[in-house]
Amino acid sequence: MTTTVRTRVAIIGAGPAGLMLSHLLAQAGIESVVIDQRTRDEIESTIRAGILEQGTVELLDTIGPASRARTVGHRHDGIELRFDGEGHRIDFAESVGRAVWLYPQHEVLKDLIAARLAAGQDLRFGVTADGVEDGDHPRVHARDADGVPVEIEADFVVGSDGSRSVARAAVAGSRNGSFREYPFAWFGILCEAPPSSEELIYSNSPDGFALVSQRSATVQRMYFQCDPDTDTAAFSEAQLWDELQKRVPGTTLREGPIFQRDVLRFRSFVANELRRGRVALVGDAAHTVPPTGAKGMNLAIADVRLLAAALRAFLLESDERLLDAYPDTASRRIWKAQHFSWWMTNMLHVTPDATDFDRRRQLGELRSVVESEHGRAYLAEAYCGWPLDA
Ligand SMILES: Cc1cc2nc3c(=O)[nH]c(=O)nc-3n(C[C@H](O)[C@H](O)[C@H](O)COP(=O)(O)OP(=O)(O)OC[C@H]3O[C@@H](n4cnc5c(N)ncnc54)[C@H](O)[C@@H]3O)c2cc1C
């Protein structure tokens, strides 16, 4: 027996992109159905992004008190770049008068899910999309956790189903996209320890990159550059602390039991098409970035802001102009973020085949950023995020 559902907008994926889109559509009185293949528990407990641009926090404010980004999250007015034995602060407030917030992605998702369920909106966990059919009434072919087929017929379908998107085939077909691979990955740990530093430290050392980050008064998130094929079990706890410590000279890291470890491979990718007919892509389904610039989740939210406005005009006023413009408008920010993420990654990591020339040039590049008011301002502007309406 097939379950058939009819809605105005079918949204595949309850990540930050899908959930924020459903919220913005609901504000405009547009009904949607959101499906996700994972359980609520899995979604709310997967550790991923942690840095919110100012514009993302302002958009989260629109869900009201359900958003705890400002109350539980921490505002950061700067970061440190460390290289050649010295730390250099990039002061966001001084350079661009903006800030970022440290608030984990799974907490953002808890807030968005709570707000959506409190408003009685349709959100289905454990429902997997197998494909999307375009047309005047596009359809999502899916199945629930028991394997029962679910057909969702809508006026518009949005693929917010992450980097392994099934919706992408309906939009981009076999014309996949542009991408770049990197010869390194991040080894990430979560540990029970108080912060080693008040602000994030992005450290370039002869042994490779490390990021010292914070989560709460008792839990810390840290990363160091590793080979993409590294096994998470390859290091003992003592070896992990040694790897981290030698890449952050000048700071004594506060150690504690490590309770999660993962290897995060990264690549840059942009799909060749972001919309075809009545199907569009947002977030990681449309593009991925290496995590060094902290852009992934924020870029997903920026796409959604544009697409929500386009869908409002299309579905409520039959005005298709913003929808037609969506791929070009979104691409402008996507490629700026791609550049920033690529630039931060290359400036801070040490490639396995780096020569003496490469290493000295890299230090020259870092110095030209931190010693220039304009260099610091570019980094601060991109890191805190370009205004969402631009
Ligand atoms: C370790 C790590 C650290 C990161 N750090 C940062 C950071 O500091 N700052 C930052 O901005 N970004 C960061 N990112 C990137 C950020 O997490 C992603 O860019 C963000 O999650 C993208 O949101 P999204 O909604 O587009 O996709 P996702 O969050 O991937 O959500 C997609 C959803 O779709 C569901 N789905 C997939 N396929 C189907 C299907 N066929 N049917 C139904 N449901 C489906 C998935 O279960 C998932 O819930 C990080 C990522 C990782 C992995």
Kindly describe this structure.
By secondary structure, this protein is α/β, with parallel strands linked by helices. The protein has a domain at 3-74 and 101-178 and 268-350: FAD/NAD(P)-binding domain (3-Layer(bba) Sandwich), CATH 3.50.50. Helix content is 35%, strand content 29%. It contains 11 helices and 21 strands. The chain has helices spanning 16-27, 40-45, 54-60, 92-96, 105-118, 168-172, 237-247, 296-317, 321-348, 356-370, 373-384; strands at 3-6, 9-12, 32-36, 51-53, 74-76, 78-83, 86-91, 100-102, 122-125, 128-133, 139-143, 149-153, 156-159, 177-192, 201-205, 208-214, 219-226, 258-271, 275-276, 279-281, 287-288. The strands form 4 sheets. The protein has an 8-stranded mixed sheet, with helices on both faces. Strands 9-3-2-13-20-19 form a 6-stranded mixed sheet. A hairpin with a 2-residue loop joins strand 15 and strand 16 (208-214). The longest helix is centred in the C-terminal third of the chain and has 28 residues, at 321-348. It is globular and about 60 Å long. The termini are far apart. The mean pLDDT is 96. Flavin-adenine dinucleotide binds next to helix 1, strand 3, strand 10 and helix 8. Flavin-adenine dinucleotide (FAD) binds at residues 12-18, 35-38, 43, 48-51, 105, 128-129, 160-162, 166, 188, 264, 283-284, 291, 294-298, 300.
